[in-house]
């Protein structure tokens, strides 16, 4: 399986980029080689995880990815290539679906609850999937980066199954994430009024920045310095606060790059950001 994945990655690099729309718009995604399992049933909706790299043998580190799309749209297929790369180097990867406004008419708190349920499910099923339950990271882009950070930092929003399991990841890999949802400490969100409205209710309650503590997991943030959707200053503020609290937070900024620059199919920055992701996970002994 892993040799096939490596060959697939090599062929894609030789052939060049696939159309970006194929990865960011197809819903539900078609992900050959991934096993699909339902992790949550809520309000008549079945939510799935697409899993790659699961198996018997020595338990391996894992990461759960959450897609972007402003909590309104998007597809788990966004991180297909990231998954294949990480599995080829020894991880198990889970791509999570969650409810969004366009398909389920929900606001951000429901998205957070789904993300936390996905993390609990991964930990509850770790033995069966060949996962080390102590080393389950979370990752995501934009709104998905917000959800990954939310699983680590926000209390509450826990409902559904496996409530005895922790929803907190052991590390975070965040691509242009939304981390400041409400003004505070002299930092403004920089979000459009439309994005802020999608949060619904108390913005501070779903704002990772406002819930940072010294217990935050090691974090990597990869962000375009020309991002006007999620301004770079917001992730700088997050890193500064994390470091002040004694946490481990690495921020890598990319000159001239706008929102979504990291996606597969966007050219050299997919390779640059995945190289940083691999370097970070290797520093934590999550990769061979």
What's the architecture, going by CATH?
A: 3-Layer(aba) Sandwich
Strand order of the largest sheet: 1-2-4-3-5-6-7-8
Strand content: 15-25%
Per the CATH scheme, the topology name is: Rossmann fold
The assigned structural class equals alpha/beta
CATH uppermost class: Alpha Beta
The level of helicity is: 25-40%
Number of strands: 8
CATH superfamily: Alpha/Beta hydrolase fold, catalytic domain
- What is the terminal-to-terminal distance? 17 Å
What shape does the CA trace take?
globular
Query: Which residues sit in consecutive blocks of at least 5 with pLDDT less than 50?
Result: 1-23
Question: How would you characterize this protein structure?
Answer:
- With 288 residues, this protein is an alpha/beta fold.
- The chain has one domain (49-283): Rossmann fold (3-Layer(aba) Sandwich), CATH 3.40.50.1820.
- It is 34% helix and 19% strand.
- It is built from 10 helices and 8 strands.
- It has helices at residues 2-15, 20-24, 80-87, 101-104, 108-124, 126-129, 143-153, 193-199, 232-244, 268-283; strands at residues 35-42, 45-52, 60-66, 92-96, 131-141, 172-175, 219-224, 249-254.
- Helix 9 (232-244) links the parallel strand 7 (219-224) and strand 8 (249-254).
- Helix 1 (2-15) packs across helix 3 (80-87) and helix 5 packs across helix 7.
- It is globular, with a radius of gyration of 17 Å.
């Amino acid at each position: 399986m892993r040799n096939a994945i490596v060959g697939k990655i090599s062929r894609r690099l030789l052939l060049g980029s696939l159309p970006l729309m194929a990865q960011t718009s197809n819903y539900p995604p078609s992900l050959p080689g991934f096993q699909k399992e339902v992790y949550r049933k809520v309000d008549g909706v079945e939510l799935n995880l697409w899993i790659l790299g699961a198996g018997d043998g020595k338990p391996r580190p894992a990461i759960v990815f959450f897609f972007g799309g402003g909590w309104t749209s998007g597809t788990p297929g966004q991180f297909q290539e990231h998954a294949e790369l990480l599995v080829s180097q020894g991880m198990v990867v889970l791509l999570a679906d969650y409810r969004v406004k366009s398909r389920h008419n929900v606001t951000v708190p429901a998205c957070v609850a789904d993300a936390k349920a996905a993390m609990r499910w991964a930990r509850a099923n770790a033995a069966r999937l060949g996962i080390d339950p102590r080393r389950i990271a979370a990752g995501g882009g934009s709104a998905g980066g917000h959800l990954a950070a939310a699983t680590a930092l926000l209390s509450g929003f826990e409902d559904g199954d496996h409530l005895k399991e922790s929803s907190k990841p052991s590390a975070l890999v965040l691509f242009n994430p939304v981390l400041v949802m409400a003004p505070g400490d002299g930092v403004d969100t920089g979000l459009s009024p439309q994005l802020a409205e999608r949060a619904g209710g108390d913005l501070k309650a779903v704002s990772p920045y406002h819930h940072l503590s010294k217990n935050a997991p090691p974090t990597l943030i990869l962000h375009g310095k020309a991002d006007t959707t999620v301004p770079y200053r917001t992730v700088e503020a997050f890193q500064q606060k994390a470091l002040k609290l004694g946490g481990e937070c690495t921020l890598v900024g990319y000159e001239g790059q706008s929102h979504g620059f990291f996606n597969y199919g966007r050219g050299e920055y997919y390779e640059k950001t995945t190289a940083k992701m691999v370097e970070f996970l290797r520093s934590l002994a999550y990769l061979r």
